[in-house]
Amino acid sequence: MTRATLLALAVLAGVSASAPAARAQTFAPDAGPPEAEIFGRRYKSAQLFAFELRFGPYMPDVDSEFDGTRHPYQDYYGSSDHLLTQTEFDVEILHNIGTVALGAGLSYFSVSGVAPVASGTGQPSGDKSTLKVVPVSLSAIYRFDYFLERRGFPLVPFAKAGLDWAYWQITDGNDEIATDGRGGKARGGTFGWHAAAGLSLVLDFFDPEAARDFDNELGVNHTSLVFQYTYANISGLGQSDRMHLGDASWSLGLMFQF
Question: Which phi and psi (to 5°) does residue 186 adopt?
Fold first, then answer.
């Protein structure tokens, strides 16, 4: 065998030995685009909770109790919506095809108008009257965030349902609880229920690197803009003589998941 033949065989052997490595490199799984790393769970801290702060219009349906025969709320406070400030804290209990959570909400509403006279006749006086409502809620929540976690798709629809209890009070011009002229106090509480649906826009994609730093430094997995439509029937759950405080309204705010 000539020296040229031996050299040729050595070259062929070297090519054959390197071929599997080349094939392994060529067909290695794709690590995915940078966005997948940003949105995926590989870098994220544990996600256990969520906090929402929302604002929206609200007008309690006090007058619905009277079936059109009277409309005390409209008479004293007008027919315009006023601001309802809403907060909610959720505990996320399951992450599978979406996120299941239990939430507790606390809201605040206040509106002022002309107070009725204490004689109970319903006539207006010269004093200011303020109605304050503090709704408390418990909700079961489902967020369909499957495509957010798998593909980085930033829109997350969600639904909520649960029970409510709303404390209310009416104060007079001296900022004291009003009376009806017979010793009755203008305060109480009403039970009810609610159902809601909405859409979250996850803001991480505007600046993925900042979102990752926010998570690494503070543990915030996602920051979202939240739109929610809520129907609340807060009229006593069958109890009579309860002030009606429900409404159908929308709200807009921010949500932080951590």
Answer: -85, 70
The whole-angstrom distance between residue 51's C-alpha and the CA centroid of its chain comes to 7
Q: Check: CATH 2.40.160.20 for 37-257? A: yes
Phi, psi torsion values for 46, nearest 5 degrees: -60, 140
**Lowest mean pLDDT, pick from 48-62, 133-147, 208-222, 240-254:** 208-222
Domain extents for the chain? Answer: 37-257
Taking the C-alpha atoms of residue 63 and residue 237, their distance in angstroms, rounded to an integer, is 17
β-pairing verdict for 98-116 and 82-96: antiparallel
- Tell me which H or E stretch contains 157: strand 155-171
Instruction: Give the helix ranges, DSSP H, for 40-83.
Output: 72-77
Higher pLDDT, 44 or 79: 79
Measured CA to CA, the distance from residue 200 to residue 177 in angstroms comes to 40
Could you list the beta-strand ranges (E) of 12-154.
49-58, 82-96, 98-116, 124-143
From the list 84, 231, 99, 246, the residue with the least C-alpha distance to 158 is: 99
Lookup: tokens for 142: 């489902």
> Which ranges constitute the DSSP H helices of 61-138?
72-77
Give CA–CA dist 26/249, Å, rounded.
Answer: 56
84-96 confidence digits (pLDDT tens): 999 999 999 999 9
